[in-house]
Specification:
Shape: elongated
Distance between the termini: 55 Å
Number of domains: 2
Strand order of the largest sheet: 4-3-5-6-7
Mean pLDDT: 89
Largest sheet: 5 strands, mixed
Order of helices and strands: HHHEEHEHEHEHEHE
Low-confidence stretches: none
Structural class: alpha/beta
CATH architecture of the largest domain: 3-Layer(aba) Sandwich
Length: 208
């Protein structure tokens, strides 16, 4: 099927840009662009400026690598959080997902990915050294390994377990309420919340 042609190159370019977004095809992109054309010029400018500001001004927390408006994110700077417990996650979406359960009051550490040789991602590409530094220096007593229960996630969990063993901290993982092969962002909040509350010693996952 030939690609649909438009009478305006401006319209075509806008559709092309929207269609680059994940999960957005050209039909959806067209619908979004036409919606914006119906909005006031001020509304569209606000929309565009918010995206530009996001890209230019967003920061990453110097402690946990979560997105932030300042050098230290709101979670790390919140003194009411349990600073002895750190939950290790793959990405920022996982922080949002776990926070939505309202079942975890510790801190986070965002790795920025998982070990995946097929994708050319190794330990040096992740925020592992900074995690080890936090465990060594910040009085952390428990590390929760909350990565997706995929083969790559389990490989990364085991690698982190071996790296963390010398520090003699409690190392736990989510209870298997989250099914094998699941990514955290697709787990419902109740199931994920229970998996956090009922977390188990990581060593139990391979000593059976």
């Amino acid at each position: 099927m030939s690609q649909q042609q438009f009478s305006s190159s401006l319209l075509e370019d806008a559709i092309h840009q929207f269609a680059k977004l994940p999960g957005i095809g050209r039909k959806t992109a067209l619908r979004l662009v036409l919606h914006l054309l119906k909005e006031s010029e001020e509304e569209v400018e606000n929309f565009g400026n918010s995206i530009i500001r996001l890209r230019k001004e967003i920061l990453y927390c110097k402690i946990c690598h979560n997105i932030s408006d300042s050098d230290i994110c709101d979670i790390c700077s919140n003194l009411s959080r349990d600073r002895s417990v750190v939950c290790v996650v793959e990405n920022i979406k996982d922080v949002i997902t776990i926070e939505n359960t309202q079942q975890f009051r510790g801190l986070y550490h965002v790795l920025g990915g998982i070990i995946s040789p097929m994708d050319g991602v190794g330990p040096k590409d992740l925020e592992i050294d900074s995690l080890l530094q936090r465990v060594e220096n910040d009085g952390i007593k428990e590390v929760i390994l909350a990565l997706s229960t995929t083969m790559e996630g389990d490989t990364t969990n085991f690698y982190l377990y071996r790296k963390l063993e010398p520090f003699h901290v409690k190392i736990t993982t989510l209870a298997r309420g989250v099914s094998i092969g699941d990514e955290l962002e697709y787990a419902d909040e109740i199931t994920l919340g229970r998996s956090i509350q009922n977390r188990i010693e990581f060593s139990q996952t391979f000593n059976k």
